[in-house]
Structure formats: structure tokens, C-alpha cells
Amino acid sequence: MITVRLFAAAADVVGTKQLKMQAETIADVIEQLSDAQTTAQVISRCSFLVNGTKASAETVLDDGATVDVLPPFAGG
């Protein structure tokens, strides 16, 4: 089980700021969060951190990991 923390627009479209899920990779997280077209459009543009380190879709998740889902932020 991992913890997923969502910020800004990602939290808005998913409807929560935090959730628990089973996922083996970041790609699994993306798939589970992308259940509607609007959600998929936002999640596909997000950056992901695993325990504070930048992650890619192929990043393997250990049990107990924390994944932060960060949408693009305006203003540089």
C-alpha cells in the first residue's frame, strides 16, 4: 500500500488531497488516477515525486512509499 498526495489541480480533479492505493509503479498510479478525460488530461501533465525524489513512469514503488502528484505551476 502506498500513500498518494495530490496538490492543486490534481487534487481538484481527483476530489481528494490524499489517498491510499496498491500500485507497483508510477505508471500504475497514473492509470488509477486517470479515470475520466478531464482527470487524465491533468494527471498526464503532472510531475511525480517518490519519497521526495523525482520519479518517472517506470519508477518502482516500495510498500509504504509516498507519491506526490504535482501539476504544472504558473508563474515560474
Can you put this structure into words, describing what you see?
The chain has helices at 8-14, 26-33, 37-43, and strands at residues 2-6, 18-21, 47-50, 53-55, 66-70. The chain is α+β, with helices and mostly antiparallel strands and 76 residues long. The protein has a single domain, classed as Roll (Ubiquitin-like (UB roll)), CATH 3.10.20. Strands 2-1-5-3-4 form a 5-stranded mixed β-sheet. Helix 1 runs antiparallel to helix 3 (37-43).
| Total tally of structural domains | 1
Give the mean pLDDT: 93
The span between the termini is: 34 Å
CATH architecture: Roll
Strand numbers in spatial order across the main sheet: 2-1-5-3-4
Helix content: 25-40%
**Using DSSP, what is the number of strands?**
5
Rg, Å, rounded: 11 Å
Shape: globular
Biggest β-sheet: count, sense, barrel? 5 strands, mixed
The succession of helices and strands, N to C, reads EHEHHEEE
Number of helices: 3
Mind telling me the CATH superfamily name?
Beta-grasp domain
Structural class determined from secondary elements: alpha+beta
CATH topology: Ubiquitin-like (UB roll)
